[in-house]
């Protein structure tokens, strides 16, 4: 293997695949990045065995020569080290060459490194995935879908399947659900090009968070291939593989009440900020609980108190209220997470008394639902 | 106590005094900030008993009313909590009032907090310092003096006096010295208005680091008052007190060689970057050692190797070299710390063989000296 490459392009590629590399891995070769160069360009692969990311840097792009390939070949180099070296090299070009015994020579200006590499044939192969059935979603839309649901996954390993987001494709619709049994987030998306098959998989929350960091905010399509054990997200330059979680995801539809006694419409940002303030006093307490009560004159009150610190009250104007008066308590964190997903929009909160789950939707749009189970304090 | 204040002014003041507040203190009242309001304005005080910071917000500034004082008084409130509350309040004005039992009412818009305060008479008094003898140094110059020396203090408590910077005022000159016995930094400064008395004190490195964060980059004067146990730095708005370290600072002048066998002039930035790169391979090893050798043709070589990772070499052009050939090894970290103090200037390195301390000065300016003790490897 021998090639020259524009330093910033190599660095950009490394930064993408580094996201899959964990320093905590028990498989030593996975602390490395695999580089493989052919006439067409350089592919970089990083993996922690749950998530694998591959990116491809073309030799020529828009008529500009990015890589000059002198000899095809491949090598595995320690990821963090390689990234730091490339970041600190003195000139805008890098020369790399694998010599005998996987010894790798890296040169830039007058700086010369000889790094001990690892035999690339020992690097795990990528999962084989046939892409005959595809979901296609724009990058920015995919990012929203992830952002609006993934925070609600469980962080406890007691029911591993709840640490993932349930993705179901059915009747031309994608339904994403996450729950940790105290709250639930559900996002529905009508697919423009629905696949022929139905799917029913659980994608680890951690993988979706990593995916979000990699895909851009553009409307470029992401091609999603789902198999029984793996999901692959393909963008123009990046292949992102994640294993799927095993086990049946619980039926969550029956958790969502269908009738409500109180319906409040208000702005999500005003409510978020008031809860953020009230939670300052609740923070020291277990669970970080705030109170929420309807008031006369189209207002709600958010309040919190702690015997050792003090108390806080705040009245917030609402748009409308229908039905019974309501007083309940909930986790400030859960409520703030849910409200953040509405990004400042006006929302409808539908409640059924102090001890029943309540739900939140956007006023204009029913595709996103957030459910929270209140906490007993009244 | 009752007053109204512009929220961002209160927040700016809190952010300054918060720098002295430690959550690790064993004195509970020092987790709080003392607020004291008079007709003239609001003073805020924070302390961790080593460092005390006081700032004063004037009621009126440049014809603008910053504070409306309704009743004079004082209170101590939990620092982190108060800071977060003020940061998150909804409007640009804050109303504060102390009610019975130190209960403190904070209001902004429709948000109302009742916080349990602490009796302000229990808060430690500021050290009494008479300012008959003063050093006066511009803020930016003071910051440089600190930056160029403080990194070299010892982090080990085995000789506590070495965790501070030795400040000596003598013959119209301020001499600042820090050493951890493996390296030494010395900065001399001719005082424009030298005080009548001589001084000889050791200021904790930690205090000087905190001071640097607070004083601005302007050329505004800082008034420095030194007593036997305390030093006070006074700027327009802030009083910064630090305790001094006890014990005699060692005589460091005899550590600095006076004759040299090799003199090299080169650019500090080029050398810094080469060592930064070489240290990537040295990092895993104990002490992070790099090699430095003079070469033919007005060059030096910086290199490093690690049996498990590989090796790196880099040649750097120098301006001039006089005297004997040299080969030695040193800590990459110590050398990079020292070079950083020269801020990219051209430097003179004066050496006396592989095992003797060497020194660095700027080419144009002899006020700053950095000394490093090499490590035995050749």
Automatic annotation (TrEMBL), chains A, B:
Keywords: Cytoplasm, DNA replication, DNA-binding, DNA-directed DNA polymerase, Nucleotidyltransferase, Transferase. It comes from the Bacteria. InterPro entries: DNA_clamp_sf, DNA_polIII_beta, DNA_polIII_beta_C, DNA_polIII_beta_cen, DNA_polIII_beta_N. The keyword Nucleotidyltransferase applies. Residues 138-251 form the DNA polymerase III beta sliding clamp central domain. Belongs to the beta sliding clamp family. This is Beta sliding clamp.
